[in-house]
Design brief:
- The chain has 225 residues and is mainly beta.
- Strands 1-2-3-4-5-6-8-9-10-13-14-15 form a twelve-stranded antiparallel β-barrel. The protein has a two-stranded antiparallel ribbon with strand order 11-12.
- The two termini are 31 Å apart.
- The N terminus is likely disordered.
């Protein structure tokens, strides 16, 4: 039976994400591209995420993702392009219906650039820089900001890992609110995690985050398909 070009194209679109999904997933790599989901519970109640990975060619892959937290008070959509050498870039849109627990709607657009690399067979580093734009409903105008982070992961053994990520955010202008208040973003955030991967497709992760004076914990289950 002879296959048409259309048939071959359809077959490639279907099989591309399966190639990524069938590979052994490294859940310790926060930038790993795979199709799957995660569900968690912690300080901000329920957390859920869904993602779909697709190989674009021999060098690039695309990860489309959706996540929600705080019992679906906030939503994030993302598109992450990654090259086989670990270089990647992403666009993320975050919509929050309860910004800083102030019952404010907020929109946050962010572009990021990162590089994932293995320093040794146990230690990996992911430096990342970002440029974003934030506005909530009580701001007179939006504000641009930058952030920089360093994701450090150490594999204790093939199934167990620990990670630590400091992040600094700096606004390029003042946050001006309609009531006259003005402020700037000058924040250090820290995230630590302990993960256990119990097979090729599933893992449990505990994470702790210090965010703007808040201590947040999250227990999550991750699965690829």
């Amino acid at each position: 039976m002879k296959l048409t070009k259309t048939s071959l194209l359809i077959a490639s679109l279907i099989s591309s994400p399966l190639v990524l999904a069938n590979a052994n997933i490294d859940f310790s790599d926060s930038k790993e591209h795979y199709s799957g989901f995660n569900i968690g519970y912690g300080s901000n109640d329920f957390d859920f995420g869904l993602q779909y990975a697709k190989s674009l060619n021999n060098n690039w892959s695309l990860l489309s993702s959706y996540s929600s937290g705080d019992n679906f008070d906030n939503h994030e959509f993302g598109f992450d392009f990654q090259r086989t050498d670990g270089l990647g870039g992403a666009f993320n849109y975050h919509y929050d219906t309860d910004y800083q627990s102030r019952d404010l709607r907020a929109n946050d657009y962010q572009f990021t650039l990162y590089h994932s690399s293995n320093v040794t067979d146990k230690l990996s580093l992911i430096p990342e820089i970002a440029l974003g734009n934030l506005k909530h409903q009580d701001m007179s105008s939006s504000v641009y900001y930058t952030s920089a982070s360093l994701d450090m992961t150490y594999n204790l053994n093939p199934s167990l890992w620990v990670g630590f990520t400091p992040e600094y955010t700096y606004s390029l202008g003042k946050i001006r609110e309609d009531n006259g208040n003005q402020s700037k973003l000058r924040d250090w955030d820290y995230t630590a995690e302990l993960g256990y991967q119990f097979n090729n497709t599933s893992a449990f992760v505990y994470s702790y985050q210090y965010d703007d004076g808040n201590n947040l914990s999250l227990f999550s289950f991750k699965h690829s398909f």
